[in-house]
Amino acid sequence: MGQWWYRNIVEPGKLPLLLALASFVLTFLVTRTVTRLIRAGKGPFRNITPGGVHIHHVVPGVVLMVLGGFIALAGGRRGFGTGVAAVVFGIGVGLVLDEFALVLHLDDVYWTEEGTKSVEIVILTVALVALILGGFLPFGVNELSPDEETDRLTVVRTVAVNFLFAVIALIKGKGRIAVVGVFVPFVALFGAIRLARPHSPWARRFYRNRPKARARARVRADRHDRRWSALRRRVENFIGGAPSR
Questions:
Q1: How far apart are the C-alpha atoms of 66 and 84, rounded to whole Å?
Q2: Which domain of life is it from (predicted)?
Q3: How many structural domains does the chain have?
Q4: Residue 75 has pLDDT above 80, yes or no
Q5: Residue 142 belongs to a domain
Q6: What is the pLDDT of residues 113-125, one digit of tens each?
């Protein structure tokens, strides 16, 4: 275990990233617990409203992200200061992404259906950072051998092809697959070759004169949504709390 830890985390300089991820997840979970207690009127926690102005936790989150980022830039990739910067940055990210929906809509939608976007973006962020910690690099570069990495043409071709897969998946209305596919090319390829979502730019352009393709896309999208949307919503509500409206 010690050898694995040194070879995969310490030696490649990934310890700050791991500290940032851990502090990010812990901050998000603690924040959601506190806000749910406030919502239920339990415990000693209350909203911070100096002068009648509700201070959302995205505000200290931004401050901590800026502080942690500048501390990290001032130091190197290793050392105690870098670890502190990573923890401060992770805490800030946890506070900011917990209110991602508020920033997106410029409105207090924390306990609404729109507010579930915050939980979704947190889950996606954790997944992507975990992939990086696991050694995945954007556009499949991690799959190249040392000899292939020295061949610039091979690297450029690999990046271009995998980037194209991710873009096609995105245009087909499969945003989550496209984002994950940036790090796992097979996922992007899967999204690129499957039928597009019925209201995606791809469907509007290429299925316009193909009624059978449009009908198949609608059927497949409805089937997918029935199968997975309810499960995804239950997971999001379990993590972040059910919306009130």
A1: 13
A2: Bacteria
A3: 3
A4: no
A5: no
A6: 888 899 999 999 9
